[in-house]
Amino acid sequence: MTNDHPRLPPGQQAVDGLPTLHVGPVPAFDSAAWDLRLEGEVRSPQRLTYDQVRALPSVISVSDFHCVEGWSRLDCAWEGVRFSDLCDLVSPTERARFVTVGCENDYTTSLPLEDMLHPDVLLAWGLDSAELPPEQGFPLRLVIPHKYAYKSAKWVRWLRFTYQQELGYWEQRGYSDSADPWREERRG
Length: 188
Known about the structure:
The chain has three helices and eleven strands, in the order βββαββαββαββββ. The chain has 188 residues and is mainly β. The chain has a single domain, classed as Oxidoreductase, molybdopterin-binding domain (Sulfite Oxidase, Chain A, domain 2), CATH 3.90.420.10.
């Protein structure tokens, strides 16, 4: 048990690999053109190059990964920068209550700022001591272990701090916005 929850949420089965699921094609990556924008209800908006993101303090965080389709991969060792460290760079205003995550292929998701500030929430570029494969979200993937994986958006390009929550790609299509695997919050 972790965090007062059983290790495997209800309706989930452990798998060995990390299945590949995503919306749209795997985007090409050009480190010279790529950037990460941090904007919205913040005091200090930022535009970071890939080298600047990679130069931030990195951590390895081991967590379990739960897909809404019923599989879970245990003990994923993600490497990246904590969201809280990015948050410190921009200094959110008092109005910032949510974060919308924007990605390649017009994919978005949104979470309460409180959820994003958990210490195991990362923007990851590595998995299991290797560079994250492009089909798994390289160059940058959100990892939010306490939510279903559709909240762990691939190919992140911008983070917008907002006062009101903006429904993301799957949430607009009827998936749960809270996405709690231990409550089986699969559909809205």
